[in-house]
Design a protein that fits this description.
By secondary structure, this protein is mainly α. It contains three helices and no strands. The longest helix has 15 residues.
Length: about 80
C-alpha cells in the first residue's frame, strides 16, 4: 500500500522531470552552421524553372545567406508580398 502512495506522489512529477531534462539538453547543445537551407515556394514550372514568387523567395534567401552580419534570416510570406500570383 505504501508503494502505491509513493507512486501516486511521484507520477505527477514525471512530466516536470522530462521538461527539465529537455531544457538541459537544449541549453547545452553545440550548435554549428548548417550546409542546407530550406526555402518554401509555390510553384516550379513544367520545364523546371521557378515561378516568379519562388524566384523572389530564392533571391531573398540567397541575400540573407550572403549577408555577413546576418546569422539567421526569417521572412514571413504573410508579411512580405511580392505582388505576383
Amino acid at each position: 500500500m505504501r508503494s502505491i502512495r509513493v507512486a501516486m506522489l511521484l507520477l505527477p512529477m514525471a512530466p516536470l522531470v522530462l521538461v527539465i531534462a529537455i531544457l538541459i539538453d537544449g541549453l547545452t547543445d553545440n550548435v554549428t552552421e548548417g550546409d542546407v537551407g530550406i526555402v518554401l515556394g509555390t510553384k516550379v514550372m513544367p520545364d523546371g524553372t521557378p515561378s516568379a514568387r519562388l524566384r523572389a523567395r530564392l533571391d531573398k534567401a540567397d541575400e540573407e545567406v550572403s549577408c555577413p552580419s546576418a546569422s539567421i534570416g526569417r521572412t514571413s510570406p504573410a508579411r512580405r508580398r511580392t505582388g505576383s500570383k
